[in-house]
Amino acid sequence: MTILSIHIGAWLSGVHAMPVPYTLQGDPWVAGIVLACFFLSAWVLACSRGFLWQRGKDFLLHRDRPDIFSTSAGNGLHYQLLLLGQTCILAGACLFVCCRTLQPLPPVSSSWKWIGTYVAVAAAAFFAKWLAYLFFGWIFLDKDKTSAWTGSYATLLFYLGFALFFVLLAAVYFALPLKIILIVGVVLFFFLKILTLYKWIKFFCDNLYGCFFVILYFCALEIIPCLLLYRGLEQLNNHLIVKY
User: Which helix (H) or strand (E) holds 55?
Assistant: First the structure.
């Protein structure tokens, strides 16, 4: 009777519940990003599937002038801005997932601050690279080649967004190990750089001077900024852990 009365008293007085451990699957911000990007991708593909297909063909076939279908009035600037915004959001979410997996982060209530910070970093990195392309194109290239290259860069970002969506989906809801996530990220990174190098060679390797230009500026605009970004993300991560 004494033991029973103790259990009844504990039940009546209330028992402290064990907190549910944090998981990426249960994070409402991550789930909201995945769901929103799914509907956004489905809507854009339904409205401008031909536009994306044509942009991909123009990129791979290296057409000096894009097909008239790819610049039709039905595939306006707002679709392109939505795709670029989706790429920035998914890149920030993937950075959050990687950092969350690599080291413990603050409670789930502050996850939106982390994701928002990484989204801002990704958007700033993409925009800074676009400005660098414009600046170096203004110095060394003519207006047509600069415009063609920035258009090719935008095409890469469009398709990068779709690739990142599947990476985020698999990392969150299939609970991929960190090793697999890093391998997929490295493969995607190198594939993106190979496509970039391919386009640079097509644009600029008309002579020996063009080959020297490609080697020099590919390292300056593609390799070194990635190393600086990696170091900057390490410092930012440490700062956010202290702040949040």
Answer: helix 28-61
Query: Quick count: other Cβ atoms within 10 Å of Cβ 156?
Result: 17
| Gap between the Cα atoms of 168 and 166, Å rounded | 5
Q: Which amino acid is at 202?
A: K
Please report, for residues 63, 90, 169, 172, the alpha-carbon distance to residue 34 in angstroms, rounded to integers and kept in the order given.
34, 8, 7, 9
Q: CB–CB of 105/237 below 8 Å?
A: no
pLDDT tens, position by position, 36-81: 999 988 888 888 778 888 888 888 876 655 554 444 444 567 888 8
Using a 10 angstrom Cβ sphere, with 0-12 exposed, 13-18 middle and 19 or more buried, the burial of residue 228 is exposed
Q: Which of 147, 146, 101, 97 is nearest to 122 (CA)?
A: 97
Q: For residue 72, give every residue at least 6 positions away whose Cβ sits within 8 Å of its Cβ, in sequence order, or none.
A: 51
The two tokens of residue 212 are 């020297």
Give the model confidence (pLDDT) of 24-39 as tens digits: 777 788 888 999 999 9
- Retrieve residue 179's tokens: 């090793």
**How many residues in the chain?**
244
Exposure string over 117-148, b if 16+ CB within 10 A, otherwise e:
bbbebbbebbeebeeebeebbeeebeeeebeb
Q: Residue type at 106? A: P
